[in-house]
Amino acid sequence: MGVVSQDAIKELEARMKEVEEPLKITFQNVHQGYLVETLMRFLKAREWNVNKAHRMLVDCLNWRVQNEIDNILAKPIVPTDLYRAVRDSQLIGVSGYSREGLPVFAIGVGLSTFDKASVHYYVQSHIQINEYRDRVILPSASKKYGRPITTCVKVLDMTGLKLSALNQIKLLTIISTIDDLNYPEKTNTYYIVNVPYIFSACWKVVKPLLQERTRKKVQVLQGCGRDELLKIMDYASLPHFCKREGSGSSRNSDNRNENCFSLDHPFHQELYNHIMQQSLTNEPDELIKQGSFHVDVPEPPADRTEIAKTIESEFNKFENGKRLSDSLNGLRINGA
Questions:
Q1: Do you know which PANTHER family this protein is assigned to (predicted)?
Q2: Whole domain around residue 139: which residue ranges?
Q3: In angstroms, rounded to a whole number, what is the distance separating the alpha carbons of residues 177 and 304?
């Protein structure tokens, strides 16, 4: 780390000591004792500009206080059937750890439908997973490996990606905006697997729009990515959709304990039990009520909006091309 970087960290740390008490309290939940690493994340997100990083961090803390994010792990999605429906349509889970101790998050991008609950439940669930990662999983991994572990790796499965994904762009933009502004630089590498043609076409035009540090994190792998992923993790930690070449992804698996998207997977069982226990500890005399936890969503930055519009445009081009191809095929068949 260069002298300039160290000076930036020291200056940002000095500024954070001056924030008001409510922000200091929530800041502890953000850094979990790894102050320098947290300051570095926000500085990286703002190209090491101290003023911009300070503004970003203070805005993040205000967002946490105003939306009671510190208490979100005590707000279960109930009944359990509703939460299972969220899990079945928002495909995300933890399959294991890399050899360096980073948790491996698996995300079923292509087959997530986000059609079993309101937007608020999906946003609530996403933030809960973020908070559980940052407050439980990463501190536990840091303790186990004897060094700060503050990031994860993500394996994105594109199996089943269709034009209907256009309906999800608004929700995905909301989620990615929350991550960009409040959980920056938490992902070490994005591995993209089971890539269909429609993704490849979009990637060509979206890639130049990404910031350089983001582009460097993205690796598009051949097939299910098994061979490449085995270089950084053991077979047992591979997401279920990477364990057999050509197997693709599925919402269901013969072994539900292996399907890291399923509510029956140990990760989701531990997460849900943690949230239920926290809710009883915080409000022992109150019945757990059904209802989503509403969170204010900040406006997406201009570059995020441009990326969403570009994806939508490419999907529409693909759809129009497909319609033309179908029409031509129909003419050939009828004229045969």
A1: CRAL-TRIO DOMAIN-CONTAINING PROTEIN (PTHR46226), SEC14P-LIKE PHOSPHATIDYLINOSITOL TRANSFER FAMILY PROTEIN (PTHR46226:SF6)
A2: 73-279
A3: 8
Specify the DSSP element, H or E, that contains 155: strand 152-157
- Cross-strand pairs, 322: none
CATH number of the domain enclosing 56:
1.10.8
Tokens of 295: 């969170």
Residue that is written with structure tokens 């060094």 in the block: 147
**87 and 140 assigned to the same domain:** yes
Q: In what order do the strands lie in the sheet with 187-193?
A: 92-97, 103-108, 152-157, 187-193, 218-220
Is 218 among the domain residues? yes
How is residue 332 written in tokens? 């050939």
User: How do residues 259-286 score in pLDDT, each as one tens digit?
Assistant: 999 999 999 999 999 999 999 887 655 5
- Which two structure tokens, joined as six digits, stand for 124? 């609530």
Residue-level pLDDT at 199:
84
Instruction: Say if residue 62 is in the same domain as residue 206.
Output: no
Contact 58, 19 (CB under 8 A): yes
Question: CA 137, 140, 143: angle at the middle one, nearest 5?
Answer: 150
**Contact in structure between 184 and 41 (CB atoms under 8 Å):** yes
Q: What is the DSSP string of 203-264?
A: HHHHGGGS-HHHHTTEEEPSTT-HHHHTTTB-GGGS-GGGSSTT----S--SSTTT-TTSTT
pTM of the model: 0.88
Residue 33 covered by a domain: yes
